[in-house]
Each structure stands twice: as C-alpha cells, then as structure tokens.
Design brief:
- There is one protein chain.
- This protein is an alpha+beta fold and about 120 residues long.
- The chain is built from seven helices and two strands.
- A two-stranded antiparallel ribbon has the order 1-2.
- A hairpin with a 2-residue loop joins β1 and β2.
- The termini are far apart.
Length: about 120
C-alpha cells in the first residue's frame, strides 16, 4: 500500500492511496465472485451470455440501456421481452414503423428514446 500527499488547492492537501497490483487482483476476484453469486437474472444479460453473434449481443444490450434510462428495471423487463419478440435484430427494427415502435414503447414514457432506436 502506497500513500501520497497531493496539493489540491492553496493550503489544502489530501492523502491518496495507491493500490498494489496484488490488492487490485484480490479486489477484482472478490467483486466478481460476489457478482456471480448475487447478480439479478435479466433477459439482456442472459442473451449476452449465450449469443455468439457480437452484433446481436450488442443490439440486445443497447436496447436495454435505452429502455433503462429513467425507468426502473422491474418495469423494463416486460417491455424488453415484447420488444425483442417483435424486433430481435437491428434489421427487423429497421423494417418496423414508427407506429410499431410507439405501440411497444407505450407506458415507458419518453417516446423519443424509442423513436431514436428506429432512426
């Protein structure tokens, strides 16, 4: 463990802690073990874990990220599942209409998020 005192402003210093490589490795191992044990099962994570196509994985996570903006996870799950049934790929989304998108987005609010996915 290394500490270093740095000047933040005139007359003000702060002590920083620098982690060793060993400390970082231990922390990473513990954090990943905790996550594996405690993570929530979410549809976009499940797809990302098994989908071999990087583009499909990216699309699935991207849709979830857009839906999750200012919306609770519990609310998003059913919307996400319906969305992925209708638009499982970017290609199927590109063939959809704004009406289709708004119909699936109804209840999530901020329709512009869905609109931008289509654009």
């Amino acid at each position: 463990m290394t500490r270093k005192t740095v000047k933040i402003a005139k007359g003000c210093t702060h002590e920083l802690h620098y982690f060793s490589t060993e400390e970082i490795n231990i922390f990473q191992t513990c954090l990943l073990a905790w996550y594996s044990k405690n993570k929530r099962r979410l549809p976009w994570r499940e797809i990302a874990e098994v989908e071999e196509d990087e583009n499909k994985r990216g699309y699935c996570v991207w849709v979830s990220e857009i839906m999750l903006q200012q919306t609770q996870v519990a609310t998003v799950i059913s919307y996400y599942n319906r969305w992925m049934e209708k638009f499982p790929t970017v290609k199927t989304l590109s063939q959809g209409t704004l009406e289709d998108v708004h119909k699936l987005w109804a209840g999530l609010g901020y329709y512009s998020r869905g609109t931008r996915l289509l654009e």
